[in-house]
Amino acid sequence: MRINHWNDEDNVIHFPVNPFEIAKSLGIDVHRVHLDDSLAGFIVREEHGGPVEIYVNKSDSPVRQRFTVAHELGHFAQREGDKEPMGFVDERAELASAGADPHEVWANNFAAELLMPAAIAKKWWAKGSSVDELRRKFNVSTPAMNYRLANLGLLK
């Protein structure tokens, strides 16, 4: 699945990427709801060929909600063409953050690349942008930006 919402019709890149609009363009409804504090969100399709819905924790900060939607879009993209029922839950549990589940690792990497593309992050970092400047440009949290830069080998 090719999800490219960085370029407009004139091939101009715009940041920050809006994962809510991407979901909408894919026919996925996003619902902001109250969830248990241990849950960031989830994606579900209850029946074969049925609608796909993403639920995000309304109590989370806007930047966390953005990352959760991007993460759930990763689960959707990973199952490209699959019309079967599905359900993935984004927990804040130790196991989820430890990177032990390959589906969760893939969805996290997808979300990071969607919101903070490596090529752009590297370019802006090389031009002297600070972590805070990049965080604002990509509209992500400071921990997410630090983690991304570290994974790209730009920050120790």
TrEMBL record:
Domain of life of the organism encoding this protein: Bacteria
Q: Residues in domain IrrE N-terminal-like?
A: 24-149
Cross-referenced Gene3D superfamilies? 1.10.10.2910
**In its UniProt entry, what is this protein called?**
IrrE N-terminal-like domain-containing protein
Annotated source species: Rhodococcus maanshanensis
